[in-house]
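Trying the structure run again after the queue cleared.
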Amino acid sequence: MKHIYVHHIIPKGVRNLIDNKTISAIILVAGNSTRFGKNRNKNFEILNEKTVLEYSLNAFDKNKYVDYIIIAIKESEMQEVKDIINKEQLTKKINIVTGGNTRKESVYNCIKNINSDIVIIHDGARPLIKQEYINNCIENMREFKGVTIGVKSKDTIKITDEKNIVINTTNRDNTWIIQTPQCFDRDILVKMHEKYKNEDVTDDCSLLEKDGNRIKIIPGDYTNIKITTGEDMDIIKKFASENRNL
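Done. C-alpha cells:
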C-alpha cells in the first residue's frame, strides 16, 4: 500500500517566480544501495556530521522556486526519514511516499500523488547539488518540457552489441553524462509514465524522448556525483571539506 505522511506546512506566501506555476521537488531515497557494500541505505551515511539526505533536503528547502518537497523511501525506513525531517529547521511542506521496486516506480508513486505544474527530481545520494543548477533547471522550463543537469564525457564512449563487440563510437563533443536534478512538466511526465509503463528506462528524460519531446541539458560540474560505492563517499567527503558553504 502506498501512503503519504504529511510532515508540516509553514506558509511562505507567493514565492514562485516561474509564471506562477507550482513546483514540487522529488528526492529519491528508496534505492537498495547494493553497490555501496554496507547493507545500509547510503542516504543515511554521515557526511561531515550530517546525513547524506540532509544535504539534498536542505538544498531544496531553501530554494527560492520550490514550493513542496516529496521524498520516496522504503516503508521500512520511513521512521528514519521522519527523524531526519523533525530535527531540521525546514520551511516547506514535506511529504513522504512509499517508493517502488525501481526508480521509475518510485517517481510514478510521487508524481501521481501531487498536483504541481512542474516537478524537479533529484537523487538523494547527490548531496553536493548547487542552487544555481536547481534554478537553471527550473528557469529553462519556460522553453522546454524537460531539462536535466549533465557534464561532458571526458572519455571516449563506445557502443557495443550484447557480445561486447563495438558497433559505434560516440563523438565526445556531443556525449554527456547525465546527472540530476531533472525537471519536467508534471502532466506530460505522468502521461509518459503511463504510456510507457512497461518500458525499462534509467531516467525520466528517456520517457519524454520517446515521444519526441526536446530535452535541454544544462552543464553542471563533476562535484555533483552520485554516491554509488564507498570510493564515491571518499571523493564526496573531499569535495565537501573544500566547500565551506556545505
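The first strand starts at residue 4 and ends at 6. Worth checking whether this holds up in the mutant runs.
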